[in-house]
Amino acid sequence: MSPSPESSVESLVNREYQYGFVTDIESESLPPGLNEDVVRTISAKKQEPAWMTEWRLKAYRRWLEMKEPHHWANVSYPVIDYQKIIYYSAPRTAKPLGSLAEVDPELLRTYEKLGIPLSEQKLFAGVAVDAIFDSVSVATTFKETLRKQGIVFCSMNEAIREHPDLVQAYLGSVVPPNDNFFAALNAAVFSDGSFVYIPKGVRCPMELSTYFRINTADTGQFERTLIVADEGATVSYLEGCTAPKRDTNQLHAAVVELVALRGATIKYSTVQNWYAGDAEGKGGIYNFVTKRGKCAGDDSKISWTQVETGSAITWKYPSVILQGDRSVGEFYSVAVVNGKQQADTGTKMIHVGRDTRSTIVSKGISAGQGNNSYRGLVKVLGRASGARNYTQCDSMLIGNRCGAHTFPYIDVQNPTAAVEHEASTSKIGEDQIFYLKQRGLNTENAISMIVNGFCKEVFKELPMEFAVEAQKLLGVSLEGSVG
Amino acid sequence: MLEIINLHARVGDKQILNGISLQVRVGEVHAIMGPNGSGKSTLAQVLAGHPAYEVTAGQATFQGRDLLDLEPEERARAGLFLAFQYPVEIPGVSNAYFLRAALNEIRKARGQEELDPIDFMDLAEEKLKLVEWGPDILSRAVNAGFSGGEKKRNEILQMAVLEPTLAILDETDSGLDIDALRIVAEGVNRLRRPDNATVVVTHYQRLLNYIVPDFVHVIAAGRIVRSGGRELALELEAKGYEWLTEAVPA
Fold first, then answer.
1. Are A456 and B93 a contacting pair at CB < 8 A?
2. What is the DSSP string of A61-94?
3. Contact residues, chain B, for A443 at CB < 8 Å
4. Does B208 fall in a domain?
5. What is the distance between the alpha carbons of residues A188 and A52, in angstroms, rounded to a whole number?
6. CB within 10 Å: which end of chain B, N or C, has fewer?
7. Is A483 a member of any domain?
8. Domains identified in chain A, total number
9. CA distance linking residue A336 with residue A316, whole number of Å
10. Closest to B50 (Cβ–Cβ): which among A434, A445, A483?
11. B102 interaction partners in chain A (CB closer than 8 Å)
């Protein structure tokens, strides 16, 4: 008897999580819990200037007044005790700003094992990496090469000290500290992250990438990324994440801010593979992330591409504020849920400027008892004459116990705007699998091919290096260049 | 090449095949005819290994191997090809990618080297001529948005690329206009070789004007009720199926 499509997909997606190991390294952690002293201590550990400490404290006080957004997202989880989380943990040996030679060999081995060798000779040619381990950046590669073109690519911690003018001008300008509960929490306790500045007219010559790794148990990871592309600049940025397998849930509440000035282009790609918990839904990462870009200048463009396969719960809406005239926002997403995973993800496109355009392509794949929701807002303000949006939302169901939901919100205040929404739901068919098997493919490859076809519009947006990562993740073989 | 002995099969609780026996040797073309619901398409699906059908009795050997013991993909790799009555759409997967993946699976099974995309394109262009198609079809998604005729032509293209030793054509003529029928039939004829064999499942005699069979079998109520040569098909066209099927209990 051949296996049913459900069981074979489950075995495909349920393959042992490869990144679940723990690095045995001495780390320095604050005791669990959060209060003003913890915020001050984090800031002090980072040797931050007073304005930064104040900024954090203001956020912390706002956070105390806010309520966790439990009510509207289509996810459920037990109450999080914020006093049980460790807000700061760093490998004891990590030196700020050390050269690669100074990085603890145990850490280098960890990234090596994750497939991210940090020695520049071994890296993919053309990808610079910032490696973040628990709360700190442990290494940033190719910094010197980039500096020659005036590009700043460093940890947020370093940027606060070395480029305070840039940080002060843009930090919180897209996601203000009081934006939402998790953004406020992040603003108060964020410990590191990546900072990118591309000067006027510069096309960044390589892909920039950050690799996030949570290691210590009961730690939350609260990183903050800020990318600024000055007038006419272009940059492509990649983000990858993994965490060890643990029985307890861990919180990841990141903030990513993108600013594109006049004529600038930012492409931001994520392959998210946090530990998803076991088959019974025990453990895994709560991925509650605020990502937003602002097309501040005319003719600017911001494009989000995400492949979400991990995390117990994903709550995330990478958005674009289309402020400049003729600016362009894009969102391409593949979200896979299996086991007891829950994802409530989508985007917001806020059309402010004239003749702004946005495209949303969302592909949700649900297997096992996974629950996948697309939630998207398209808002066209009164001034945004000639705004255009196209939204396509496709769901694929594998088996009978999973769910797919679509929650589109459309708010149009300008009569010349055109907003299009298409949605479809399909089931992976026994007939499709049989057809491909009859042509010589085994079940696993048949399903890969069908899922790959379903996700094609999103995968083709990924940079080559990441397409390979996505392929490994989904067990999906990518289409060749021919045809 | 193919030997079927007393084959019984059902789908769910419904018994459909009630003891089919058939022998196909290399170089032969067999036509399987019969009224709707007689079991002729089921026979094709069972031979290909569709999981919805359960074999309840009987045997089938293909080139000396127990066919019923093989997974569908193993049957395909052994050289058995089914041209589907209703070819399935695979959105987002280009014909070229799909065909090369299938061909390389089969080449691996034959102990041949896999073809890279460039060599594959050379081969595919050659095969496209057989179905009178340009290369555009290779970049379209598999059967997605194809007309009924295009889907059938695509089956023959796949057959041309995969070069099966045994091709089973399941109602390949249904839904074809006369030009498409000619293209499909000529394609099949040109793929005939002394070392392969073809089984044509059809309701109508029409296709057999183009693909001339060596043997014709009539199935009714899951059994072969009459076998003969080419002339049996012509007789059926003149007389219909009733004179053969009336005698068989349902």
1. yes
2. HHHHH-----SSSS---PPP-TTSSB--EEETTP
3. 73
4. yes
5. 10
6. C
7. no
8. 1
9. 14
10. A434
11. 436, 439-441
The answer to whether position B182 is within a domain reads yes
For residue A222, the enclosing domain spans 20-430
List Cα–Cα distances, A376 to A71, A200, A330, in angstroms: 17, 33, 12
Within a domain: residue A232? Answer: yes
3-state secondary structure of B72: helix
Task: Provide the domain count of chain B.
Answer: 1
What are the start-end ranges of the H helices in A349-429?
none
Q: Three-state SS for B120?
A: helix
> How far is B137 from B143, CA to CA, in rounded Å?
10
Identify the closest residue of chain B to A445 by CA–CA distance. B101
Which of B51, B76, B89 comes nearest A439 by C-beta? B76
Distance in angstroms (rounded) separating the CA atoms of residues A470 and B8? 45
Contact in structure between B153 and B184 (CB atoms under 8 Å): yes
Phi and psi torsions of A373, nearest 5°? -120, 135
| Nearest Cα to Cα of residue A416 among A443, A439, A382 | A382
Yes or no, beta carbons of B93 and A449 under 8 Å apart: yes
Host domain of residue B236? 2-245
Average pLDDT per block of 10 residues along chain A, 483 residues long: 44 55 69 89 91 95 88 75 82 52 65 60 55 64 82 90 95 94 92 90 87 65 92 90 62 92 95 71 80 97 88 87 98 86 90 97 86 92 96 87 88 95 84 95 86 84 68 42 20
Residue A181, CA atoms < 13 Å, CB-side half-sphere:
12
Chain B positions touching A448 (Cβ under 8 A) are none
CA distance A438 to B102: 9
| pLDDT more than 90, % of chain B | 76
Flag whether B177 is in a domain.
Answer: yes
Q: Does A441 touch chain B (CB under 8 A)?
A: yes
Q: What is the ipTM of this complex?
A: 0.95
Look-up: residue for tokens 């183009």? B210
Contact yes or no for A337/A365 (Cβ under 8 A): yes
Is A405 part of any domain? yes
What does the alpha-carbon distance between residue B213 and residue B215 come to, in Å, rounded to a whole number?
A: 5
Residue B22: give its domain's CATH number. Answer: 3.40.50.300
Q: Is B150 inside a domain boundary?
A: yes
Give DSSP secondary structure letters for A273-295: ------TTS-SEEEEEEEEEEEE
* B51:A2 CB<8 A: yes
Q: Is A247 on the interface with B (CB under 8 A)?
A: no
Q: Which of B192, B160, B222, B246 is nearest to B32 (CA)?
A: B222
* DSSP string of B150-212, one letter each residue: HHHHHHHHHHHHH--SEEEEESTTTT--HHHHHHHHHHHHHT--TT-EEEEEES-SGGGGTS-
* pLDDT tens column, B77-91: 999 999 999 999 999
Residue A389 lies in a domain: yes
A391 CB-contact burial (10 Å; exposed 0-12 / middle 13-18 / buried 19+): buried
Give the least confident one: A461-465, B114-118, B133-137, B231-235. A461-465
Q: Residue A161: is it exposed, middle or buried by C-beta count within 10 angstroms (0-12/13-18/19+)?
A: middle
What does the pLDDT read at residue A87? 82
- Give the Cα separation of A77 and A282 in Å (integer): 11
Q: Does A392 touch chain B (CB under 8 A)?
A: no
Residue position matching structure tokens 């399941």? B170
